[in-house]
């Protein structure tokens, strides 16, 4: 069997396994049957991971189906202009937006869906652009650790239903939701998180007309634009291959913004943000502001992503600019601060008014399903509207 057909079979197996699990769940048989079919990390495969150094129980790292790199990362990403991308990327489709030292790039989720990791260099900084469909978490990490540039692949395993990456240098296993090595010689090390936002392509393009968009020319045959996890983001539906007790405070797959400031953790449910559009809060003694922008489509709803329902997008910033604390309100075209009347965009840039040209400082956060945020941050509080 050649490599193309072999990878295609892995892709089909993923789709079949998901639909089989979905059918099992809806008949209320539960997760135990599916979990019993999954092998443990110790049984899983060909990685040369030093399992003697483990921070989590090895039997909680389970096979997701494909072998290592069966979901192939993109190691030599190619890019096109926003105009070229508009031929196949619809205006409201979600992209992961990243800017490093003026180098603005967009990574369509319709591509990340099938690869989960892009090893890239942006603004001179080696980064891993990652997306876990099962947790709906899109995160960007720096790949330099202790002076060594790591390259990441997909292990084929899951931890708390989250993508487990491995670095090709030491074969250590890394949990994507926390950017931490959990098994192997690098166990305990963390990757530095880079600010990134999931937003509609048209919104990113408006702010970055000269930016670059990840090309469909990946070197792999995939049905880009098709979602193999149809209806996966139904809020009340439990997660795939998850072991452990689910936090009952919110529906398992409700979208939340998880904010981390120091040791403090807080989750902001999307349904509440949608009603407010702007939320001010204090987390770990840091005043923050959350912008909610409607319109961005889900990548995990309809079989065709372009036909999925709108779920919106968020960005999080420090509310201070210099010595001044700003308060914001939503406007038809974006956001406005009440102190100066300056107009701001979703990305925290002042477009007009006395503060034009200024930028807010991003705050570490992730848009993810509630079950995933709570699983990796069990001490989290949940914001409720005052």
Q: What does the model show?
A:
The protein has 386 residues and is an alpha+beta fold. It has 2 domains: 3-214, no CATH class; 255-382, Rieske Iron-sulfur Protein. Helix content is 17%, strand content 33%. It is built from 8 helices and 29 strands. It has a 5-stranded antiparallel β-sheet. It has a 5-stranded mixed β-sheet with strand order 2-16-4-3-15. It is globular and about 60 Å long. Residues 1-9 and 23-44 have low confidence and may be disordered.
Number of helices: 8
Q: Percentage of helical residues?
A: 10-25%
Shape: globular
Biggest pleated-sheet summary: 5 strands, antiparallel
Q: From the alpha carbons, calculate the radius of gyration and give it in angstroms.
A: 20 Å
In total, the number of domains comes to 2
> Quaternary state, please?
single chain
The whole-number mean of residue pLDDT values reads: 91
Extended strand count: 29
Strand content: 25-35%
